C-alpha cells in the first residue's frame, strides 16, 4: 500500500486539523463509516432524509471539509452525502487504486449501496469530477445529474505550473502559502474563508503525498454516451487544466451546459444559485 503521508507525525497533524474543521461545521453533521471492498470510507451526511440525495466529491489533496462553507445551503435543499475519497487526506482508507482500473466506480457504487442511495445527483470538484464522470461512463443511469467544477479528465493537464511550483515549495511555510494561492487562482479573493483555505492547502502540501500519475482523459465517445444531465464550470485561468479544451470538447460531443469563467482559475468562486437550481431542475 502506498504511504500517502510524508510521516506519521504529518498524518496526525492533518487528522487533528480535519477534526477541528468538522467541529466548526455550521450545521449538525452525521459522521458515518462504511466498509466497502477498497477500504473503510468516511462520509458526512446532513439534510432531511426525505430530500433528494446529493453526493459531494471533493478534489485531490483535500477532504469533505472543503464543502463546509456551502453545507448550510445544500442541506436546506438536499439529503447531502459528502464522501471522503479513498487515498486522499481525509477519514477514508489510504487505498489508491489505478485510475483506469474501474475500481473507483465500483468503490462509489458500494458506498451508495451501503447508504441505501439509488439514483442520485452529484456535485464534484477536480479529481472528484473525474470520479463522477468515470462512474457515469461505466455505470450509466445511477447518477442522474452532475454539476462539475474544474473536472479532470476532459482538458489536458498542464505542466507549466511545475517549475514555479518547485521554486515556491522551497520557500518553507510562506512559499507553500504562495504556491497554494498560485494553484487555486484568481477566484480565491471572491471565495469565503480564503485565508483558511490557503492555510489548509499549504498544510496538506507539507504533510501529504498527492497523486502524481497522469489522469486518464475520456474519449469523445465516452463523453457523448453519458446519460446524466451535465453542468460544467471551469476557470479560463486554470494553471492545472486546459479549461478551453474542456469547454470545446464538451460543447462538441455532449449537451452539457458549460460555463468558462474568465476571471477564475482552478478554484471556482461561488456562483449564486446556479448549481442548486441546476441540480433541482426537472428533467428535460
Q: Characterize the overall form.
A: globular
Task: Look up the CATH topology.
Answer: Rossmann fold
DSSP E strands, number: 8
Number of structural domains: 1
Q: Strand count, sense and closure of the main sheet?
A: 8 strands, mixed
Strand order of the largest sheet: 1-2-4-3-5-6-7-8
Query: CATH H level: which superfamily?
Result: Alpha/Beta hydrolase fold, catalytic domain
The low-pLDDT segments are none
Rg over CA atoms: 18 Å
Query: What is the residue-mean pLDDT, rounded to a whole number?
Result: 94
The helicity comes to 25-40%
Gap between N and C termini, in Å?
A: 45 Å
Order of helices and strands: HEEEHEHEHEHHHHEHEH
Pfam families: Abhydrolase_6 (PF12697)
Protein name: Pimeloyl-ACP methyl ester carboxylesterase
GO molecular function, one term: catalytic activity
InterPro entries: AB_hydrolase_1 (IPR000073), AB_hydrolase_fold (IPR029058), Carboxylesterase_BioH (IPR050228)
